[in-house]
Design goal:
Helices cover 29% and strands 9% of the residues. It is of the alpha+beta class and 489 residues long. The strands form 2 sheets. The chain has a 5-stranded antiparallel beta sheet. α5 packs across α8 and α10 runs parallel beside α11. The protein starts with a helix and ends in a 15-residue tail after the last helix.
Length: 489
């Protein structure tokens, strides 16, 4: 009880210092220290707190919109979930402060000291952080869209998954910074120091990287575009150096002049999938590549790059001979493992080998192709890079649904699930097979959005795949690759 009285007294002192009118008050030097005070959730909108000592204060959830905090000491303060929209924080000392989920939209943090501060998932939309000291700051998942970070010192900063679209990072120090999967689309990084930074999976499409200094520690699967190349004023050797380091050019057809240089690095056969590829999918893909290489020695086929963005995966496969890459794509599209091999075919040896693979691997290969959007083959023609062939995917939706259900349910659970939804009469329980029940569901219109919603609730981990199958069933029937006609019992 005594502790509560002390805390209330501190809060009253602060409000008294502001004349109980935070919007127009000022703080005298004699009352400017509230170190360690509990000011949780206090409304200090447009308060004049210039030069105050709030070191270690608890301002969690406080409202400080438009407040003047110029030169204020907020070292180690807790400002988690606080609102500081349009606040003036010029030269404010926020070292080691906690600002997770805080709202600093349009705040002015010019030359603020933020070393060691935590701003996870904070909103700094349009904020001004020019020349701020932000060494080892934690900005994971933060929104820094349109943020001004010119000459900011971000050495060792954590920016994993941060939104830095259109951010101004001109001459910023990003040495040893972690930018894994950061969104840097249209960001200006001209003259930035990237020494030992980690750019794995970063999105650098349409970014300006002119005059960047230092070599990043990793650029694996970072995305570049033709616009990045042009905005950065790069020469061919510059983009080739990034590609050699593991970056991906998402629109190679827009830079045909790169020709052989690009093809030898990361192009060839491009496989695009509508979902993130799981470990079991990778296993199946490498299995079929291994079989292909064993049956056709010297093909040297290998995965050279992959990229995940939103709910999609892009895989690039390279082989010394483009004809072999084309034949490999034909094997995937044709699903040769789903039927007995035809005598005398050019790929008979490979088909025989695929048939001998385990049923589980062949099932997973079919499931992998179910989720493919398209395959593209790039080759060199007349010294320029050209798209040689494209495979657009159409899928047997009934077979795809059957594979999905096999991944979700045990055999007994799957049959029970189908019987209930296909309304199978009790006298046919022993005769109705899976294909017949799927056909009955299709003909009765039982595969509704509600049914797929129920599947997502049953298995949230498979939501992407379930939504993909739902789209297949919502599409016109002519999109099917083939339609099996099961025999009715």
């Amino acid at each position: 009880m005594a502790q509560n009285s002390v805390e209330e007294t501190v809060r009253e002192r602060l409000l008294l210092a502001l004349h109980d009118k935070p919007i127009a008050g000022s703080v005298s030097s004699t009352l400017a220290s509230f170190q360690g005070a509990d000011l949780t959730g206090l409304n200090l909108t447009q308060a004049k707190l210039r030069g105050m000592n709030l070191r270690g204060a608890n301002l969690r959830g406080a409202v400080l919109d438009g407040a003047d905090l110029t030169g204020t000491d907020l070292r180690g303060a807790d400002l988690s979930e606080a609102s500081l929209c349009s606040a003036n924080l010029i030269s404010t000392d926020l070292r080691d402060a906690r600002l997770s989920n805080a709202n600093l939209t349009d705040a002015n943090l010019y030359r603020a000291r933020l070393a060691g501060a935590t701003l996870r998932h904070a909103s700094l939309l349009g904020a001004g952080l020019n020349e701020s000291q932000m060494e080892n700051v934690d900005l994971r998942g933060a929104n820094l869209r349109d943020c001004k970070l010119v000459r900011a010192r971000l050495k060792g900063a954590r920016l994993d998954g941060a939104n830095l679209q259109r951010a101004y990072l001109n001459e910023a120090v990003l040495s040893s910074a972690m930018l894994i999967s950061a969104d840097l689309q249209e960001a200006n990084l001209s003259g930035a120091d990237l020494t030992d930074s980690d750019l794995r999976g970063a999105d650098l499409r349409r970014a300006n990287l002119a005059g960047c200094v230092g070599a990043p520690a990793s650029r694996a699967n970072s995305s570049l575009s033709a616009s990045t190349y042009r905005k950065s004023g790069w020469r061919n050797t510059d983009i080739v150096e990034w590609l050699q380091a593991g970056s991906i050019l998402v629109d190679p057809e827009r830079l045909p002049q790169l020709g052989h240089q690009l093809l030898s690095l990361s192009l060839g056969l491009i496989l695009s999938f509508e979902v993130h590829i799981q470990a079991v999918d990778w296993f199946a893909l490498y299995a079929i590549i291994t079989v292909y290489r064993e049956q056709f020695p010297g093909s040297n086929m290998r995965v050279v790059a992959f990229h995940e963005a939103e709910a999609a995966t892009t895989i690039r496969i390279l082989a010394d001979d483009p004809v072999k890459m084309e034949s490999f794509a034909d094997i995937l599209v044709g699903r040769t493992w789903e039927s007995e091999p035809s005598a005398g075919t050019a790929e008979r040896a490979l088909t025989d080998a695929l048939i001998m693979m385990s049923p589980q691997i062949r099932e997973q290969l079919s499931w992998l192709v179910d989720r493919a959007r398209c395959f593209e083959l790039y080759v060199i023609e007349n010294t320029a890079l050209q798209k040689s062939r494209e495979w657009r995917m159409t899928v047997d939706r009934r077979a795809a649904l059957a594979r999905l259900l096999r991944g979700l349910f045990s055999p007994v659970e799957r049959l029970q699930w189908l019987r209930e939804r296909a309304s199978v009469p009790s006298d046919l329980h022993g005769k109705a097979d899976e294909q017949w029940m799927l056909q009955r569901l299709e003909e009765s219109g039982g595969l509704t959005s509600q049914l797929f919603h129920e599947l997502i609730q049953y298995s949230p981990a498979h939501a992407q795949d379930i939504l993909l199958i739902a789209r297949l069933w919502a599409a016109p029937i002519h999109t099917q690759r083939r339609s099996a006609e099961p025999v009715r019992p």
